[in-house]
């Protein structure tokens, strides 16, 4: 479920983004074009007809009267100056120059005070202004209320007054519908928010994916999940066809609506998409849960492996599960690599990319640098983008320098690692891990495993020693198999009498396979001992 507070804050952020776009282009609306007729019963809004679009595009704005124009000119200059001061403040805060940034706040307040004084001159005679002049007064007053006074209700009333003016500039009236909708939605007045957003859709000549997302959110918060889903899918279609990026929070809303409608199978491709664009842990977790529910075990394993490669795992159970699944799938090398990483790493951060963009610069006094025409100078600046990483415990890159590795050297973890190394034919490394394991368990299984590995590497004497220790330590699951290996090792060194004793004990095993093999080895041992004895007699005879 999408958090209502987060969505409310998203509405406000949309407003703030809109204000930033308007700093120097007050009144200019930029939209992405696509025309699509839809059935409003499904939640999709009615769109403007081609005739209405042509009328919007062909209507010309009126001209301000001279006295109003002079006031408006000063207002625009003041807002432009305040915008530049805000940009300077942002750069100062970025450089952690708090005192200088606070000084900019005072300068901004002074400029806005002067701007508000100009607005007051128009406010005092607003009833005597003509319709167009009055609409522009409401426009700039709304902007000041919204951007500098945090007076959302006042701004909304200004915009509501603006759209009532018959001579208001069509584009400004159009953008006002959208802003009014956002202001109502940020106040959780969803009915009015939807009402004015539908007016925007019915009037605009260029719809956007973002507008559909805004409508989808409103339906979602009204628990109209089918309508929300239809609208979000339309937003996705427009985004795909226009080549615009479907933002991360848009995916969150779309996936949330699908979750409410129990469209689990349909969610999968969208989770796969969002993971490609925004590889974050929570999306891996959610998609992994879907794969499990849909019984797609191979995809689940592949997903966990991808999460490991992107260094997103941060729980011991995730390392253990992935390693065991890789081992079961016949990938012991990767299984061992996962466990070794978990035992030596902690959560950290590293530079995964760089984000470069043109940005304004400050002079020594903390003011924006401008060229001879008064236009702010821009320079290319790059910021490192940090992402999750597996780093060495105690390192500077660790999120917590005192954190212990994801995995401790417990019986379970050492067992998984040892078995993975053994299956990967990394015998020497496996022996080292089994030696550690032997110290934390009460049975002789690790010693028997060491003996088997040493035997395979032709270290016969060491194998015999390890297996004897394992049998002596006891509590073995299959002592008969251990005796068979020990007997074979003794046989290799032609210690036939000892081998016969061991095979004799093994022949008394309750397991038929062990019993049968032990009896065969007894016969073979007797035969080989006699052959060696005869060979030695011949050698003595010849000499």
SSE pattern: HHHHHHHHHHHHHHHHEEHHHHHHH
* CATH fold node name of the largest domain: Serine Threonine Protein Phosphatase 5, Tetratricopeptide repeat
Helix content: 55-70%
User: Going across the major beta sheet, what is the strand order?
Assistant: 1-2
Topology (SSEs and partners):
Layout: H1 4-21, H2 50-58, H3 66-94, H4 98-123, H5 131-147, H6 152-164, H7 170-186, H8 190-203, H9 209-221, H10 225-242, H11 248-260, H12 264-277, H13 281-293, H14 297-309, H15 316-328, H16 332-344, E1 345-360, E2 378-392, H17 411-423, H18 427-438, H19 445-456, H20 460-473, H21 479-492, H22 496-506, H23 512-542
Antiparallel strand pairs: 1-2
Helix pairs in contact: 1-7, 3-4, 3-5, 4-5, 5-6, 6-7, 7-8, 8-9, 9-10, 9-11, 10-11, 11-12, 12-13, 13-14, 14-15, 15-16, 15-17, 16-17, 17-18, 18-19, 19-20, 19-21, 20-21, 21-22, 21-23, 22-23
């Amino acid at each position: 479920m999408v958090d209502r507070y987060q969505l409310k804050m998203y509405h406000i952020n949309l407003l703030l983004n809109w204000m930033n776009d308007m700093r120097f282009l007050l009144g200019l609306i930029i939209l992405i074009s696509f025309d699509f007729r839809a059935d409003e019963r499904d939640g999709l809004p009615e769109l403007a007809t081609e005739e209405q679009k042509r009328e919007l595009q062909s209507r010309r704005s009126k001209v301000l009267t001279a006295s109003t124009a002079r006031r408006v000119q000063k207002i625009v200059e003041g807002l432009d100056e305040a915008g530049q001061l805000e940009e300077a403040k942002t750069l100062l805060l970025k450089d952690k120059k708090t005192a200088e940034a606070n000084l900019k706040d005072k300068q901004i307040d002074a400029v806005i005070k002067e701007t508000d004084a100009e607005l007051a001159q128009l406010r005092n005679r607003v009833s005597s202004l003509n319709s167009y002049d009055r609409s522009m007064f409401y426009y700039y007053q709304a902007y000041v209320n919204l951007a500098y006074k945090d007076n959302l209700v006042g701004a909304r009333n200004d915009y509501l007054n603006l759209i009532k003016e018959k001579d208001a500039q069509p584009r400004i009236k159009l953008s006002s519908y959208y802003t009014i909708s956002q202001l109502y939605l940020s106040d959780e007045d969803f009915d009015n928010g939807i009402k004015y957003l539908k007016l925007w859709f019915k009037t605009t000549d260029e719809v956007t994916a973002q507008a559909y997302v805004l409508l989808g959110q409103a339906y979602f918060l009204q628990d109209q999940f089918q309508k929300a889903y239809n609208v979000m899918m339309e937003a996705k279609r427009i985004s795909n066809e226009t080549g615009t990026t479907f933002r991360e929070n848009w995916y969150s809303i779309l996936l949330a609506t699908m979750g409410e409608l129990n469209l689990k199978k349909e969610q999968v491709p969208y989770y796969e998409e969002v993971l490609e664009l925004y590889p974050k842990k929570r999306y891996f977790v959610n998609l992994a849960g879907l794969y499990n529910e849909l019984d797609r075990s191979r995809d689940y394993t592949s997903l966990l492996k991808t999460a490991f490669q992107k260094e997103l795992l941060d729980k011991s159970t995730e390392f253990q599960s992935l390693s065991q699944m890789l081992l079961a799938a016949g990938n012991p090398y990767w299984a061992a690599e996962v466990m070794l990483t978990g035992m030596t790493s902690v959560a950290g951060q590293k530079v995964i990319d760089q984000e470069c963009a043109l940005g304004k610069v400050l002079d020594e006094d903390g003011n924006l640098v401008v060229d001879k025409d008064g236009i702010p100078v821009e320079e290319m600046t790059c910021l490192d983008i940090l992402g999750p990483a597996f780093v060495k415990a105690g390192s500077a890159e660790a999120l917590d320098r005192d954190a212990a590795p994801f995995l401790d050297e417990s019986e379970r973890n050492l067992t998984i690692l040892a078995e993975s190394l053994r299956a990967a034919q990394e015998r020497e490394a496996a022996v080292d891990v089994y030696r550690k394991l032997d110290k934390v368990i009460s049975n002789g299984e690790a010693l028997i495993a060491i003996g088997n590995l040493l035997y395979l590497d032709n270290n016969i004497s060491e194998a015999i020693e390890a297996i004897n220790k394992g049998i002596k330590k006891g509590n073995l699951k299959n002592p008969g198999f251990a005796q068979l290996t020990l007997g074979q090792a003794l046989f290799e060194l032609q210690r036939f009498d000892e081998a016969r004793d061991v095979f004799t004990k093994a022949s008394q095993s309750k397991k038929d396979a062990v019993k049968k093999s032990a009896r065969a080895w007894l016969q073979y041992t007797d035969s080989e001992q006699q052959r060696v004895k005869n060979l030695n007699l011949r050698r003595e005879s010849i000499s």
